[in-house]
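Progress note, sequence design subtask.
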C-alpha cells in the first residue's frame, strides 16, 4: 500500500517540476536530478534548477523515509501512539526563488506520516502541508487571487478549512526575532486525519495543484516586468529573512536534520543568492516600509 502512496507523491513532483522547467528559456540553466537512498530506510529524488533565465534557484523534492525512533519535530503529532515498530514519512516539498523581484518566492509541501506495525503496514497516520507566498514588491491583486483560489479549493472539501488553515499559516510563518511575518500567508495544516487515507491523498493532490495553478498565474502576470538593480538588491537582502526562518524555526528543516536526512536536499530550499548588510540604503528603507505594511497584516478572504 505504501508503494501506491509513494507513486502519487512522485507524480506530484513530476507535474510541478515539468511546469517549472517550462519557465526556463536559457540553455545554460543548471539542472540537477539526484535519486538517492537512505541507509536507515527510504529513498527520494531531489531536483534543482539553478542559475537560469527565470530561477535563481528552485528545488522540487520527493522523499519517503522510515525509521525506528520518531524525530522530536514529529512527537507532538504522535502522543499516546505506539511507535515501537517505527514510522514512515513521505511527501513533496517545493521552493521557488525567481530571479525577478516582482515575482514572489513561493513554498509548498504535502506529506503523509504513518505509524507502522510489525509487518510494516500503517496502523495510524495523518497528513500535513500547505503553501505560502513571500513577495518583495507586492501586488494586492496577486495576493487576493492567491487566497481566493485557496479558499475555493478548500471549500470543496470542508467550508471550515480555509479560516483555520489560513490563520495557521499566518501564525506559523512568523519571524519572532524580527517581529515580522515571512510573507502574505496562504494555508498551513498538520495532524489532519478526518478522511480515509486514500481520500487524504486526493486532498493533498488538490492542494499541490491549487498551489501550482495559483503561482503560475502570478508568474504570468509579472514575468515580463523589468526591474532595477536597487530592486534586485532589496530582494537579495529580504531573502535573508527567508533563510533565517528556515534555519531557526522551520519544523520541516528540523525534522529532516533530526531524522538524519540528506543535508543537500534539506538545504536546497535556501536561496542561492542572498545578502545581509548592516547599513541599508534609502532605496532599501523605502521598499521595506511598503513591504512591511503588506506582510504584517491578514490577507484572509
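Output:
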Amino acid at each position: 500500500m505504501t508503494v501506491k502512496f509513494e507513486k502519487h507523491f512522485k507524480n506530484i513532483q513530476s507535474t510541478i517540476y515539468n511546469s517549472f522547467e517550462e519557465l526556463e528559456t536559457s540553455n545554460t540553466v543548471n539542472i540537477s536530478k539526484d535519486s538517492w537512498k537512505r541507509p536507515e530506510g527510504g529513498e527520494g529524488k531531489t531536483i534543482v534548477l539553478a542559475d537560469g533565465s527565470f530561477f535563481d534557484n528552485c528545488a522540487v523534492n520527493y522523499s519517503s523515509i522510515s525509521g525506528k525512533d520518531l524525530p522530536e519535530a514529529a512527537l507532538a503529532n504522535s502522543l499516546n501512539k505506539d511507535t515501537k515498530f517505527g514510522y514512515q514519512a513521505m511527501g513533496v516539498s517545493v521552493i521557488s526563488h525567481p530571479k525577478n523581484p516582482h515575482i514572489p518566492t513561493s513554498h509548498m509541501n504535502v506529506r503523509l506520516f504513518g505509524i507502522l506495525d510489525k509487518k510494516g503496514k500503517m496502523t495510524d497516520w495523518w497528513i500535513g502541508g500547505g503553501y505560502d507566498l513571500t513577495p518583495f514588491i507586492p501586488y494586492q491583486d496577486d495576493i487576493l487571487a492567491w487566497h481566493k483560489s485557496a479558499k475555493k479549493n478548500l471549500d470543496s472539501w470542508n467550508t471550515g478549512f480555509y479560516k483555520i488553515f489560513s490563520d495557521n499559516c499566518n501564525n506559523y510563518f512568523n519571524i519572532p526575532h524580527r517581529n515580522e511575518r515571512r510573507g502574505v500567508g496562504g494555508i498551513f495544516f498538520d495532524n489532519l486525519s478526518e478522511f480515509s487515507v486514500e481520500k487524504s491523498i486526493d486532498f493533498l493532490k488538490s492542494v499541490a495543484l491549487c498551489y501550482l495553478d495559483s503561482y503560475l498565474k502570478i508568474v504570468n502576470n509579472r514575468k515580463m516586468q523589468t526591474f532595477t538593480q536597487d530592486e534586485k538588491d532589496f530582494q537579495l537582502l529580504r531573502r535573508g529573512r527567508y533563510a533565517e526562518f528556515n534555519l531557526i524555526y522551520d519544523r520541516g528543516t528540523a525534522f529532516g536534520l533530526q531524522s538524519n536526512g540528506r543535508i543537500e536536499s534539506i538545504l536546497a530550499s535556501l536561496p542561492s543568492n542572498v545578502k545581509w548588510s548592516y547599513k541599508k540604503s534609502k532605496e532599501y528603507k523605502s521598499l521595506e516600509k511598503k513591504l512591511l505594511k503588506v506582510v504584517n497584516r491578514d490577507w484572509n478572504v
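Residues 71 and 258 are 5 Å apart (CA to CA). Work on this subtask will continue into the next period as scheduled.
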